[in-house]
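re: ur question from earlier - yeah i can do the single chain one, its not a big deal. heres the input i used so u can compare w yours
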Amino acid sequence: MFIMYKKSKILLILLLFCQSVYSQNKCPCEYGTTIKIKGKTSLIDSLGNYLIKSTDYIYIDFNESLAVVHFQSENKEFEKINSRLLEQETASKVIKVIPDVLSAVIDCNGRFVIRPTDKYFIRGNFNHGYAMIEQDCFYHDMKRLTCKKGFINTKGEAFFAGTPEYDYAYKYFWGCSDKFLFDSLQKQINIGRDSSNRVILYSIDKKSSVYRFTYSNSKQIGVMNRKGEVLIEPTSLQLNRFTNGVSVFSVDTVINEKRTYLLGLIDTNGVIRIKPLYKRLNPVNGEITIFYEGERGVYGLINKNGQIVYETSETIVDYTDNLIVIEYEITNEKGKKIEKLGLIDTDGHTIVRPKFEDIYHFENGLAKVELKNGKVGYINHKGEYVIRPKREE
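and the output i got, formated as tokens:
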């Protein structure tokens, strides 16, 4: 009996230990919100719970259960380089930059997944298991800065031009990518093409596996996929950047004897989702687009089938997590008309009365809000403060 009790007790202790280890290792959420108050950086989840609290990190970017962090290096060599750049009178030398910031990757419990390093600088968060890096940065003529760019995986292994992983992650970092990558993709697509129909890539569009392109003998823009297959032949429609599978396009027209343009929406298959009837269009995601119709002077929301789901005479600023950010013109206590932001749902019910200077996009269930006095807080979908307004420093 005593032996059985002792064994049960040992098993219970082991079970509790395993649960404790598991709870420490498992992140409660995949995404988090970074806040900075009084010089300290913290990471919170959608309920306002602190995942990482009051650290000296100067930067935290949390995504896919991993956080890229930056903090000040103790290496003073960069100060010497900066001094040398300022004192240098001739612009003939190329000087290597030693970073003053270290990069690392931690989990939501603050443990290092990739230890602090100055071998490369981690530029942004993880997307599909890859984060963008820079290394071997040089100042040319005291003005131009160049860096070798690539990606790391979650093990800290670096990838540069010529790897399949690089092309896959490339579209998420278009704004920061190096020109040699763009050129290598263009060469790959042009294999087997003659000079008369050579493809010239116009842009690679964020969050869409498509390229806008033109042929060498044409000025019109078309769309192709990553395999080089043409989805939309070059057209007279003026196509903007594709986001979430759709692009705003414009057509010239004449209204009341005045030449103007109207906007519509087209998808990557060349299907016109929204006819060109509007003065402004802002695709928020693949499902909803904000519109402004000049003739009636109304703002509204259109779904992916081109159906109007909401209209208002007030200005729609944003649509985020099924809530609409509205800019209202109100009269303050001095009788002066001012603009304030509030939140409503798609039925027109008020979620937050107009009182904010700014309402940011919801991320992980929280939206950052700013007040006139400069204080910053975070609200949930009900408009309730999860973190009450404080002065952000």
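The CA atoms of residues 322 and 354 lie 18 Å apart. not sure if urs matches, ping me
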